[in-house]
Specification:
The structure is a single chain. α5 packs across α6. β12, α10 and β13 form a beta-alpha-beta unit. The chain is globular. It starts with a strand and ends with a strand. The chain has twelve helices and 15 strands. By secondary structure, the protein is of the alpha/beta class. Belongs to the zinc-containing alcohol dehydrogenase family.
Length: about 350
């Protein structure tokens, strides 16, 4: 089968690999019907994810059809359409039992697919702990609608949930890329008074204005003043930092009002400074870390009910055998790209 493979820092290649097989009773093999490229894949390519294993198939954002299941799998069966969770988790350890599935103590726990074990930018993928890692897609939900449920939309849902958004809040989201927009959509579920999204890229802000006209947009250099003018409390009640740029961490706490919640969702390339003397007296609550992606079933229910729709994010579609061109487009942000969907290879 064709599989897009991490060879070494700076190099991905499309190559032929054997189709995956069941190796544990809890495994499932899924035929990938649609996958996507994530910024985290670019982090692997450029060496920002030290735990990524050379030789693995990349890709952790996908939907497909179950082909085989191990003897211990109970929740899915061959023929089921499924969304694949970005995280591998056993469901039994202390962290899984408390919903902190990103910290699963299994050797393959957390972000494994497309990082430490073969992922889904391929024709088939083996999913460990399939009872936790696969969620059946409702009949009324298409592959396009479900594509982001297990990763970028799960991240946005988690970010909004931990941010404790209240009605009446002003919510600032730093980053208008796919994760920022998914965070924005999930923040809307909590009915805040106002959402402001900040990004330096005019094309991304234009995308937001075209699709979500009730959301206010601003560039970073004017963000602090703009947020203060559009909040009754001297700053945002909630800040979600999704950008991970050189200046976005500082901007996040600067734009927050005293006693606000600042949720750090971004993946940074280098350490950030926590300037405690400068922020003394703001009494901020910081929440940090990777997504606990255990809400896929609820996310799919919201999609089915029309409460979440991420299909506008899919701006381009490429077959797997043209994935190198898709990566080039995505990494260089050409042609107004937001997300690229990858379909099975053209024969």
């Amino acid at each position: 089968m064709l599989a897009y493979t991490y060879r070494k820092q700076g190099e991905f290649t499309l190559q032929n690999k054997p189709e995956p097989v069941l190796t544990h009773a809890g495994d499932a093999v899924v035929r990938v019907t649609m996958s996507s490229i994530c910024t985290s894949d670019l982090h692997i390519k450029h060496g920002s994810v030290p735990r990524a294993v050379p030789g693995i198939t990349v890709g952790h954002e996908m939907v497909g059809v179950v082909e085989q299941v191990g003897s211990a799998v109970k929740t899915v069966k061959p023929g089921d359409r499924v969304a694949v969770n970005v995280e591998t988790f056993c469901g039994h350890c202390f962290f899984c039992q408390h919903g902190f599935v990103n910290n699963c103590t299994d050797p393959n726990g957390g972000w494994a697919l497309g990082c430490r074990i073969d992922g889904g930018q391929a024709e088939y993928v083996r999913v460990p702990y399939a009872d936790q890692g696969l969620t059946v897609i409702p009949d009324r939900v298409s592959d396009r609608q479900a594509l982001f449920a297990g990763d970028v939309l799960a991240t946005g849902y988690w970010a909004a949930r931990i941010s404790e958004i209240q009605q009446g809040d002003t919510v600032l989201i730093l980053g208008a890329g796919p994760t920022g927009i998914c965070t924005m959509l999930c923040a809307m579920l909590h009915h805040p008074h106002r959402i402001i999204i900040c990004d330096p890229d005019p094309a991304r802000l234009r995308f937001v204005r075209e699709h979500y006209p009730d959301v206010l947009t601003i560039t970073p250099e004017h963000a602090q003043e703009f947020v203060q003018l559009n909040s009754p409390h001297g700053g945002a009640d909630v800040v979600c930092e999704v950008a991970g740029s050189d200046d976005s961490f500082r901007l996040a706490w600067e734009c927050a009002r005293p006693n606000a919640i600042v949720s750090i969702v971004a993946l940074y390339d280098k350490p950030q400074t926590l300037p405690l003397p400068d922020m003394y007296g703001k009494n901020l609550t910081f929440k940090t870390g990777g997504v606990d992606g255990c809400d896929t079933a609820e996310i799919l229910r919201l999609i089915e009910n029309g409460q979440l729709d991420t299909t506008p994010l899919i701006t381009h579609i490429f077959p797997l055998n043209e994935i190198e061109a898709a990566y080039d487009l995505f990494e260089k942000r050409r042609d107004g790209v937001m997300k690229v969907a990858i379909t099975p290879p053209e024969k």
